């Protein structure tokens, strides 16, 4: 069966890195043909058409069609996977309320269009920032879609954490298991080394406490800003790569003996307020994310998780106040 993948913000820089990977089969696997649906704002439709021409020119055997639209109802019609990348970035002088309001104007209507038009098995990954709260807005506009189908991306943070630890311990990334990002995709996120394992032993016991606290956590949490500083533009290829990883694992399952990180609607596990879209340690089984249960959380981790979850609760309360959820 051909899978329809809708990508919003398709003419943006993440879109440009993402679409070719989807069309080449890396999102869903080498046996799954795909149709791409590109959603853009009217001013960017022409640029999306240019990207579509380039996709054609790759002659990808799995790519069975490309649709381009500025109408969410059309773009999400029959969609099986939705990658919500396009968002309103914060610009100079913009207050947080303005940012949330502007994004509410994007993610509310897109959530409703998904509710009304997408396929029954729709899976949604929100990449556009503030990703967790944009996912919450979209989810609340889609009451007929099971809440668990709305997720937000913390896989880039997860991959950044793997890479930093790999460099520190001089081990290949493949030797690191059970990394976790908790909370919000923001500077308050908590990359957790107390459950991560390297060579079967707890990672936190293999690094200095100061490095963990003063280097590792802030480097991972502020990596997005460091990339903007260095590149003059935010992460694009690495963000697209993380989106591919997230959906690939969601559909195909996580490897035995390991887990990953994804922001999914909380069921109250680990004291995280029910309903907010928070990052957890997760496994994917039979096409569904499940939160890894039974981890012991010490006082240090508790404080960090609570701080990030506190920020998510503030964002939720702010969008509630604005009538966006
Ligand atoms: N969760 C994560 O780990 C990461 C999230 N991001 C976020 O991803 C988002 C996209 O980043 P870039 O591609 O670099 O931005 P970009 O500015 O290059 O592209 C965004 C695209 O979205 C389009 N767009 C805006 N409103 C739209 C709407 N209502 N419907 C459809 N398309 C719309 C714009 O026309 C533009 O082409 C940003 O919000 C960025 O902060 C970026 C990196 C990592
Ligand atoms: O701040 C941004 O736009 C980019 C971002 O989320 C990241 O790189 O983690």
UniProtKB/TrEMBL annotation:
Q: Which domain of life is it from?
A: Bacteria
Tell me which residues bind substrate: 90, 96, 129, 160
Mind listing the UniProt keywords for this protein, alphabetically?
NAD, Oxidoreductase, Tricarboxylic acid cycle
| Amino acids binding NAD(+) | 9-15, 103, 110, 127-129
PROSITE patterns named in the record: MDH
- Pfam families on file: Ldh_1_C, Ldh_1_N
Annotated TM spans: none
Enzyme superclass (EC)? oxidoreductase
Catalytic activity from the UniProt record: (S)-malate + NAD(+) = oxaloacetate + NADH + H(+)
Q: Which GO terms describe its molecular function?
A: L-malate dehydrogenase (NAD+) activity
Write down the EC number.
Answer: 1.1.1.37
**Where does the record place the catalytic residues?**
185
Boundaries of every Lactate/malate dehydrogenase N-terminal domain copy: 3-143
Which GO annotations describe the biological process of this protein? malate metabolic process; tricarboxylic acid cycle
Gene3D superfamilies, per the entry? Lactate dehydrogenase/glycoside hydrolase, family 4, C-terminal (3.90.110.10), NAD(P)-binding Rossmann-like Domain (3.40.50.720)
Report domain Lactate/malate dehydrogenase C-terminal positions: 154-320
The record ties this protein, via PANTHER family, to: MALATE DEHYDROGENASE
Function, in words: Catalyzes the reversible oxidation of malate to oxaloacetate.
HAMAP family named in the record: Malate_dehydrog_2
Return the similarity comment: Belongs to the LDH/MDH superfamily. MDH type 2 family.
**Record's protein name:** Malate dehydrogenase
**The organism of origin for this protein:** Planotetraspora mira
Identify the gene encoding this protein. mdh
């Amino acid at each position: 069966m051909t899978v329809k993948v809708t990508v919003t913000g398709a003419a943006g820089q993440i879109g440009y890195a993402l679409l070719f990977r989807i069309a080449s089969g890396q999102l869903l696997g080498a046996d799954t043909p795909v149709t791409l649906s590109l959603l853009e704002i009217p001013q960017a439709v022409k640029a999306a058409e240019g990207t579509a021409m380039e996709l054609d020119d790759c002659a990808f055997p799995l790519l069975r069609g490309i649709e381009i639209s500025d109408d969410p109802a059309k773009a999400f019609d029959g969609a099986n996977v939705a990658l919500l990348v396009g968002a309103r970035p914060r610009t100079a002088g913009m207050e947080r309320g303005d940012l949330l309001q502007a994004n509410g104007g994007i993610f509310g209507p897109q959530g409703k269009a998904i509710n009304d038009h997408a396929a029954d098995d729709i899976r949604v990954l929100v990449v556009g920032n503030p990703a967790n709260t944009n996912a919450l807005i979209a989810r609340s506009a889609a009451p007929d879609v099971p809440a668990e189908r709305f997720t937000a991306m913390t896989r880039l943070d997860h991959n950044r954490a793997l890479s930093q630890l790999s460099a520190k311990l001089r081990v290949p990334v493949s030797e690191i298991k059970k990394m976790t990002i908790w909370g919000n995709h923001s500077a308050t996120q908590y990359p957790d080394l107390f459950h991560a394992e390297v060579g079967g032993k707890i990672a936190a016991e293999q690094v200095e406490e100061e490095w963990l606290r003063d280097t590792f956590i802030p480097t991972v949490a502020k990596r997005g800003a460091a990339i903007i500083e260095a590149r003059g533009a935010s992460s694009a290829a690495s963000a697209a790569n993380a989106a591919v990883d997230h959906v690939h694992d969601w559909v195909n399952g996580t490897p035995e003996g390991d887990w990953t990180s994804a922001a999914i609607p909380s069921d109250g596990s680990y004291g995280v307020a029910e309903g907010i879209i928070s990052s957890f340690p997760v496994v994917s089984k039979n096409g569904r994310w499940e939160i890894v249960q039974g981890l012991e959380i010490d006082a240090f981790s508790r404080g960090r998780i609570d701080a990030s979850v506190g920020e998510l609760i503030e964002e939720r309360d702010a969008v509630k106040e604005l009538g966006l959820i």
